[in-house]
C-alpha cells in the first residue's frame, strides 16, 4: 500500500504560539485541540508539533527535561491524548518532534552526571579534559550554533560538549543506554497513537571524537560548515545511518508503520541517504527553502531534488518556512542579497521591505510548493501570509541566539509570534490574557477572521490549493513544459494541471486552458509579474 505521507501536507504547529486555552499567555495542547478545525478546513492531512515536553525553555523547548511527558505550562499527557483522538476523528495525522541529539541540562541524566566525575551518567554525554597545562582551554575550537564555544566547563574542571546552547548537552550515541532510551521513547509515543516523528538535527547524533580535532571555522550555515570540513567530526558521520536502520525496525513494527521526517541541513546527495528504504521516510529539502526568487534556481532545485529522491525510491518534501527562519513575505520583499540578521538588528527598517511585492511572491511560491510531487510542510501562519515581526523589543527576545551572539543576532522569535485569530480583542483571539511574545498592532489585519471574509485572501488561496492538489498529488510525475519553461517562467504539468510561475516583473501570456487558481489577479489570460497560476489544459 502507498504510504500516506508521500503526498501529505503537514501543518507545523509551534505549540506555544498557536492558541492559549488557559489564559496564561502561552499556547497549549488544549489550544491546539480547539484549533484542529482550522487545520482540517485548510485541507491539511495532519499536524507536526514542535516540542511540548517538560523543559526549562532555554531553546524554545528543544531542551527536553523529560521525553515522556507534557510541560505543565502546556497541559498534561491526558490533554495530549485528547488532542490525538480529536485529530484522528477529523482524519488528521499527528507527528511530533523528537530531539535525540541533546537533552536539557535539567534532565535527570545530566543532573546525575554533574553530581560526580565518577557518575556513570557522565558517559551518556560527551565530557572531556580541556587543553593547556591546567585544562582551562576548551578541548577544541568548535563553536556552538548559537555563538560562543561548543564546550562548557563544570565545577570539577571537565568540559562537556553542546553543539547548541550550554543548556543543551549533547548525548553520547556510542552508549547503548542512549540507543535503548530512544527506542523506548519512540515506542512510548507510537503506543499513544502518534503517526510519525520529525527528528531534530538528525545528522548530528553520532560523533567522531577520537582523536579530537579542530574545525576550519567558517561563517554561514551548515552547508558552508560541511563544505569547509568534508570529514566533519559531528555532522553527517556515516555511522549515524545505523541509528536510523535501527529505528526503522522499531517503527515498522506498527500498523501503519510510524512515519519519519529528518531535519538535515545537507546538500541533496548526502541528504537522500537518510531516506534509503531501510532508514527514514523523508528529509526536509532546505535547498528549496534557501533558493532565491529566481526561475533558474527553482528549476535546478526541483529537478535535482526529484532525481535524488528517485534514486532511493522516495519523493522530496517541500518547505518554504519553519520556526527557525525569517518568514517569506518579508524576505521576498527585501532587495536580493540583504543579510536577514542585519535587517533584523535594524528592526526591519533598513532596508524597508516592499510588503506588497513580498506578499505577492510568497503567494506565488506557495502555489509552486504545493504543486510539486511529494509532501509539503506548511508552517503555522504561512496560510495567512504572515510577515516576520522584525521589530520585537530586545527585552522580549527569548531565542538563545540573541544571548549567544552577544546581542548581534536577534534570532528567530520574529517568526514565532502567536497567531492572530480575530481582528481585535485580547491577543487577537490567541487567548484571553496577552501573549508571551508581543503581537504588533497591525496583526489583526492578517487574522483568520479578516481573511475568512475576503475571498481573495491568502487563507482562501491555501484552502483552494490544498483542495485542488488532491486531484493530482498522488500521481508523482512532473513534466516540464518546454515551450513556457524558460527565462523567468517556471512551468510544468502535473497530469491535466499546468503550473506556471512568473518570477520576473513582466507579464506573460498563458496558453489556452481553464484557470483553476491564481496567486494574484489575472488580466484575461495574461499572468502578471511575481504571480503563479494553475490551469486545466487537456
Ligand atoms: C533545530 C530546531 O528546529 C531548532 O529550533 C533548535 O534550536 C535546534 N534544532 C536545536 O535543537
UniProtKB/TrEMBL annotation:
<keyword id="KW-0378">Hydrolase</keyword>
<feature type="domain" description="Glycosyl hydrolase family 13 catalytic">
    <location>
        <begin position="12"/>
        <end position="416"/>
    </location>
</feature>
<dbReference type="GO" id="GO:0009313">
    <property type="term" value="P:oligosaccharide catabolic process"/>
</dbReference>
<dbReference type="InterPro" id="IPR006047">
    <property type="entry name" value="GH13_cat_dom"/>
</dbReference>
<dbReference type="GO" id="GO:0004558">
    <property type="term" value="F:alpha-1,4-glucosidase activity"/>
</dbReference>
<dbReference type="GO" id="GO:0004556">
    <property type="term" value="F:alpha-amylase activity"/>
</dbReference>
<dbReference type="InterPro" id="IPR017853">
    <property type="entry name" value="GH"/>
</dbReference>
<keyword id="KW-0326">Glycosidase</keyword>
<comment type="similarity">
    <text>Belongs to the glycosyl hydrolase 13 family.</text>
</comment>
<dbReference type="InterPro" id="IPR045857">
    <property type="entry name" value="O16G_dom_2"/>
</dbReference>
<protein>
    <submittedName>
        <fullName>Alpha-glucosidase</fullName>
        <ecNumber>3.2.1.20</ecNumber>
    </submittedName>
</protein>
<dbReference type="Pfam" id="PF00128">
    <property type="entry name" value="Alpha-amylase"/>
</dbReference>
Amino acid at each position: 500500500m502507498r504510504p500516506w505521507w508521500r503526498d501529505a501536507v503537514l501543518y507545523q504547529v509551534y505549540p506555544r504560539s498557536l492558541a492559549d486555552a488557559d489564559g496564561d499567555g502561552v499556547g497549549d495542547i488544549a489550544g491546539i485541540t480547539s484549533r484542529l478545525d482550522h487545520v482540517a478546513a485548510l485541507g491539511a492531512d495532519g499536524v507536526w508539533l514542535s516540542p511540548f515536553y517538560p523543559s526549562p525553555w532555554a531553546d524554545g523547548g528543544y531542551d527536553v527535561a523529560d521525553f515522556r511527558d507534557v510541560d505543565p505550562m502546556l497541559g498534561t499527557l491526558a490533554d495530549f491524548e485528547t488532542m490525538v483522538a480529536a485529530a484522528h476523528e477529523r482524519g488528521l495525522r499527528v507527528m511530533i518532534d523528537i530531539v535525540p541529539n541533546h537533552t536539557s541540562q535539567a534532565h535527570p541524566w545530566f543532573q546525575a552526571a554533574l553530581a560526580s566525575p565518577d557518575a556513570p551518567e557522565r558517559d551518556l554525554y560527551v565530557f572531556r579534559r580541556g587543553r593547556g597545562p591546567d585544562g582551562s582551554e576548551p578541548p577544541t575550537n568548535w563553536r556552538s550554533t548559537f555563538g560562543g564555544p561548543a564546550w562548557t566547563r563544570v565545577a570539577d574542571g571537565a568540559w562537556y560538549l553542546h553543539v547548541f546552547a550550554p543548556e543543551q548537552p549533547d548525548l553520547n550515541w556510542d552508549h547503548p543506554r542512549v540507543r535503548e532510551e530512544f527506542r523506548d521513547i519512540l515506542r512510548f509515543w507510537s503506543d499513544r497513537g502518534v503517526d510519525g516523528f520529525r527528528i531534530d538535527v538528525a545528522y548530528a547524533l553520532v560523533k567522531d571524537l577520537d582523536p579530537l580535532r579542530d574545525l576550519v571555522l567558517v561563517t554561514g550555515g551548515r552547508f558552508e560548515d560541511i563544505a569547509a570540513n568534508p570529514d566533519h567530526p559531528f555532522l553527517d558521520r556515516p555511522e549515524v545511518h545505523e541509528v536510523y536502520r535501527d529505528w526503522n525496525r522499531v517503527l515498522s513494527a506498527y500498523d501503519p508503520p510510524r512515519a519519519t521526517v529528518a531535519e538535515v541541513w545537507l546538500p541533496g546527495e548526502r541528504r537522500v541517504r537518510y531516506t534509503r528504504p531501510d532508514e527514514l521516510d523523508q528529509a526536509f529539502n532546505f535547498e528549496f527553502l534557501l533558493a532565491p526568487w529566481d526561475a533558474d534556481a527553482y528549476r535546478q532545485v526541483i529537478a535535482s531534488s526529484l532525481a535524488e529522491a528517485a534514486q532511493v525510491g522516495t519523493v522530496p518534501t517541500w518547505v518554504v518556512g519553519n520556526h527557525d527562519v525569517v518568514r517569506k513575505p518579508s524576505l521576498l520583499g527585501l532587495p536580493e542579497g540583504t543579510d536577514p540578521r542585519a535587517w533584523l538588528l535594524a528592526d526591519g527598517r533598513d532596508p524597508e521591505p516592499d510588503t506588497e511585492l513580498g506578499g505577492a511572491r510568497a503567494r506565488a511560491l506557495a502555489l509552486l510548493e504545493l504543486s510539486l510531487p511529494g509532501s509539503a510542510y506548511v508552517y503555522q501562519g504561512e496560510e495567512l501570509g504572515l510577515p516576520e515581526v522584525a521589530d520585537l523589543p530586545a527585552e522580549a527576545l527569548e531565542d538563545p541566539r540573541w544571548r549567544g551572539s552577544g546581542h548581534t543576532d536577534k534570532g528567530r522569535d520574529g517568526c514565532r509570534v502567536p497567531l492572530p485569530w480575530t481582528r481585535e480583542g485580547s491577543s487577537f483571539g490567541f487567548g484571553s490574557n496577552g501573549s508571551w511574545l508581543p503581537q504588533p498592532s497591525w496583526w489583526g489585519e492578517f487574522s483568520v477572521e479578516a481573511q475568512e471574509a475576503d475571498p481573495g485572501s491568502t487563507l482562501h488561496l491555501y484552502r483552494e490549493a490544498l483542495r485542488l492538489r488532491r486531484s493530482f498529488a498522488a500521481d508523482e510525475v512532473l513534466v516540464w513544459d518546454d515551450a513556457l519553461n524558460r527565462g523567468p517562467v517556471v512551468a510544468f504539468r502535473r497530469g491535466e494541471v499546468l503550473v506556471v510561475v512568473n518570477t520576473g516583473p513582466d507579464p506573460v501570456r498563458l496558453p489556452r486552458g481553464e484557470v483553476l487558481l491564481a496567486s494574484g489577479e489575472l488580466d484575461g489570460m495574461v499572468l502578471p509579474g511575481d504571480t503563479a497560476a494553475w490551469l486545466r489544459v487537456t
